[in-house]
Predict the structure.
Amino acid sequence: MKFVGYMRVSTARQGQSGLGLQAQEDAIQQHVLGRGGSLVQTFKEVESGRDNSRPQLAKALELAGLTGSTLVIAKLDRLSRNAAFLLALQDSGVRFVATDMPDANELTVGIMALVAQQERQAISQRTREALRAARARGTKLGNPNGAAALRRAAKGNDAALRVTQENARARAEALRNTIEELQGLGKASLGGIAAELNARGILTARNAIWHRSSVSNLLARLGLSSGSQSQ
């Protein structure tokens, strides 16, 4: 069984000193060894608690998806309060375990995400009630630049499409070095590349095995050519 590890500390000073990271790394190693598995790679995140950007988590989830590994996290207790983290796990479709919460799994994370979503909805409801109360007091509300806000919303849809396309390109780029390595070793055909990717345990974006057609799509996205199609 293959695992990808993820550790996180919340301040740069802790990250520089290694405070907390060593204990998390030990917990991950013990979990993997206890299940007779292998650790593909470990990712370390140093971040502020107010920052929802988690580039190392994104990389860990991507690698786990590519290799069919289970994501193992040392400490879920603090992360469980962060909706962005939970939703990233829930949407990734990657198998997940936590060393500090042995019974936690994808279902647990889904429940946590629902609780976080309910809290956001409760905050939204309280906001609407506060606005109604403000109107009742005669407070003027609204955006004087409403048309501009609508234009910004339309641009937001275009931006979301660009993000989706960029994510697809980024996923392909994650395999560029592997593909170029295989081609350099003489595995230049669609069938040869597919066979080697499958042998290495690397899955497609949809967590499936590779075929000539999926390799062809990947090469097209990377702007690379293939050799003979018969191998």
